[in-house]
Amino acid sequence: MKHEQLVTLEAIVTSGTFRGAAERLHKSQSAISHAIKLLEEELGVILLSREAYRPKLTLEGEVFYREASRVLQQMRALKSTASRLRAREEAELRIAVTNTLPLETVLTVLAEVGRAFPATHIRLTTESMGGPVARLMEEQTDLAIATLDGVSLAEVEARPVAEVTIRPVAHPMLVAGFADSVLPIAAMQGLTQIVVAGTGGPAHDQSRDVLPGGLRWTVSDFTAKKQVILAGLGWGGLPDHLTVAERQAGTLVPINVESYPPRHSVLHVIRRRDVPVGLVANDLWEKLSTLSR
């Protein structure tokens, strides 16, 4: 039994297909099938049923996979420990954060890391929707801060760092004609909804909380979205921390849209399990992990 075979089994289970595992591990589909066949022959147990389009763990396979997952997690933890023991200060530390994050939440921690490792260049980028996670999985960033929507915990570690509420708002004049406290979808479809484009590719564009059949504008970021909504050109969800002053002044008002309640999300600091962790990245990880305690 080889570590590579266990990784292959995990890739099949988490991706759902032999083809998906092949793409994830950058191998041919025949190599993936051969590795599992050899593992099954060695064990004398059929791990995966091939009767349907998607391979499915057999009863024996489910028991084996649970134990294999623990072994893989331990192996990754050992590799991470080894990389920290030999790590040196990185020349650059890359952090991709969702633009719904109140940056003041992490600035104190970043300042501490900057003082402790002055030779490391900190590169902080903000991304929309699934952008931070996309950058992480593409190895274009060392740490990401985002929600865990659509994230496989078999591939990443995650710890909570902050909570954010995204609330639908509008200029008061835009909704002045609506007397009801709950604005029906039929009425809202005649008003332009402002959404933010994702930065992780088409698969990460906004899909939740988008009214079907309604008018829509797409903007690049929340700053632009806020300005468009303030101008009375549309409505949309904005993080509470971006609209405190405007809601107090009455230039923006919360609106109660049918089937569009305020969304409460937990943001996590996320890192890949299979990528070595540098000295500075690990220090930032540990400091960010204390924020929600």
How do the helices and strands line up, and which of them pair or pack?
Blueprint: H1 3-15, H2 18-25, H3 29-43, E1 48-49, E2 56-57, H4 59-86, E3 92-98, H5 104-116, E4 121-127, H6 131-137, E5 143-146, E6 156-170, E7 182-183, H7 185-188, E8 193-196, E9 216-219, H8 222-230, E10 236-239, H9 244-249, E11 253-254, E12 256-257, E13 263-272, H10 279-289
Parallel strand pairs: 3-4, 3-5, 7-12, 8-9
Antiparallel strand pairs: 1-2, 5-13, 6-10, 6-11, 6-13
Describe the structure.
- Strands 3, 4, 5, 6, 10, 11 and 13 form a 7-stranded mixed sheet that branches. Strands 1-2 form a two-stranded antiparallel sheet.
- By secondary structure, the protein is an alpha/beta fold.
- β1 and β2 form a beta hairpin.
- It is built from 10 helices and 13 strands.
- Helices cover 39% and strands 22% of the residues.
- It has 3 domains: 84 residues, Orthogonal Bundle (Arc Repressor Mutant, subunit A), CATH 1.10.10; 94 residues, 3-Layer(aba) Sandwich (D-Maltodextrin-Binding Protein, domain 2), CATH 3.40.190.10; 101 residues, 3-Layer(aba) Sandwich (D-Maltodextrin-Binding Protein, domain 2).
- The mean pLDDT is 88.
- The chain is globular, with a radius of gyration of 23 Å.
Describe this protein with a few key phrases.
293 residues, alpha/beta, Arc Repressor Mutant, subunit A, D-Maltodextrin-Binding Protein, domain 2, 3 domains, globular, LysR family transcriptional regulator, transcription cis-regulatory region binding, transcription regulation, DNA-binding transcription factor activity
